[in-house]
């Protein structure tokens, strides 16, 4: 799917690793799956603010064509400190921000975003202000993500970050919503899809991104996305944006 057919746009945010995005659902991308990516989002839709938790499998939003979204997608592990909720408590869920924050505060923020000419900028300002008054995330969390995304084993990742296996698992649940093995699978899937979409043959994609072979890659896509690999590559799939 090319840019003309997709209603999704994104740009970097001021917070490290975060991305601002907008989406207006089109007839071309309405059924496109949202791939798991280890991220959490704060999003606006139809005059309400929601938190999109980390997904374990692809999410398929059921919304009408023309539905508009604005959101900020946080780097894996950074949202729980900002939003004040452990990632595993919102795993595979979309919940209203008013369930986490005082209702009056959320109403004021929602009204501000409703009236903003650039809703993503308004969301970004909320996140930046929040980041200034809460404790920053443990810097080891980013190191965990980088190690796993580089193909390190869970044991190697634990050693590199100075954590034992139990501590690594506990911190991963709170920060990413799932254990390090699941996070590693999801990050590997993201690498593989990005690589395959550059036109690299699937067998080479599998070898380059840490799969035993193309069949292994295909099985992982079916388990995490619920569709054949070839269909996924033409589906216009997106990251965690609803």
Walk me through the structure.
It contains ten helices and six strands. Helix content is 43%, strand content 13%. It folds into two domains: 8-131, no CATH class; 139-233, Orthogonal Bundle (Arc Repressor Mutant, subunit A), CATH 1.10.10.60. The protein is an alpha+beta fold. The longest helix has 17 residues, at 180-196.
Summarize the structure.
The protein is 43% helix and 13% strand. The protein has 242 residues and is α+β, with helices and mostly antiparallel strands.
Identify the notable features of this structure and list them briefly.
242 residues, alpha+beta, Arc Repressor Mutant, subunit A, 2 domains, 6-stranded antiparallel sheet, 43% helix, 13% strand, globular
Secondary structure elements and their pairing?
Layout: E1 8-12, E2 19-24, E3 40-45, E4 48-52, E5 68-74, H1 79-83, E6 94-96, H2 103-115, H3 119-131, H4 139-149, H5 154-161, H6 165-176, H7 180-196, H8 202-208, H9 214-225, H10 229-233
Antiparallel strand pairs: 1-2, 2-5, 3-4, 3-5, 4-6
